[in-house]
Amino acid sequence: MFNPKELFDLGQTEHAALFEGCGFAWQVLARIGDYLGRHLKPGLHNKCQGIAYIGEHVYIGPGTIVEDGAMIRGPAIIGRNCQIRHNAYIRENVIIGDDCTVGNACEVKNSLLFNRATVPHFNYVGDSVLGHGAHLGAGVVLSNVKALGGNVMVVSKEERYDSGLSKFGALIGDHAEIGCNSVLNPGSIIGRRSVIQPCTNWRGVLPEDMIAKNRSSVELVIRRNLDDR
């Protein structure tokens, strides 16, 4: 499930050429900057609600709304009919498809979002790919750097793969759902239509059509009155 076509419908992005020759989908992450350098033609066809900062090397398609306080540094391509909400921070080397949402206090860098991907509330998306219709719950973090340094490894049940990347967050397949306040560790791969339940610390590969359940226990104790202490 590491091939791009196993995770993503390449018809749901205008930038499928990025994946040409990629045996592993994560290889696209090292190509985004060069691709933007060759294909980006700056132009702002959006509407602003309030005051936003938009850099010189940015293209935004018609129908997209950029709300007050957003910062889009670029280089970046943002598609049609998107919502870039209040205080969103879109850094360098970002490609966002049509009908996408980047919400309040979300940060995105060196990433590709397929059409209808949703990054709605307090999310960090670094060095990652979100497939068509993929959705992050509030507070989801796609961690992209190993605490101890070195290349990010992709770990499956069978073997380990050296991604060759020092920064690699996650590949999230089409229509996958990541529950609120979950953390995906570097090199995570989530298959199509799979679900990570809320507050999960996930590492590794989740095949398509699976649910990762969070079975953390909750202890109940009697509350004592302050006078009894």
Beta-strand proportion: 25-35%
Which fold does the CATH topology refer to? UDP N-Acetylglucosamine Acyltransferase, domain 1
Provide the CATH architecture.
Answer: 3 Solenoid
Question: What is the helical fraction, as a range of percent?
Answer: under 10%
N-to-C series of helices and strands? HHEEEEEEEEEEEEEEEEEEEEEEEEEEEE
Total number of domains: 1
Q: Which sequence of strands runs across the widest sheet? A: 1-4-7-10-13-16-21-24-27
What's the story with the biggest beta sheet? 9 strands, parallel
CATH superfamily descriptor: Hexapeptide repeat proteins
Output the radius of gyration.
Answer: 19 Å
Structure characterization notes:
The protein has two helices and 28 strands. With about 230 residues, the chain is mainly beta. It has a single domain, classed as UDP N-Acetylglucosamine Acyltransferase, domain 1.
Summarize the structure.
The protein contains two helices and 28 strands. The longest helix is centred in the first third of the chain and has 8 residues, at 32-39. It has helices spanning 4-7, 32-39, and strands at 43-44, 47-49, 53-54, 58-60, 65-67, 71-72, 76-78, 83-84, 89-90, 94-96, 101-104, 107-109, 111-113, 118-121, 124-126, 129-130, 135-136, 141-142, 153-155, 160-162, 170-172, 177-178, 183-184, 188-190, 195-196, 201-202, 205-206, 211-212.
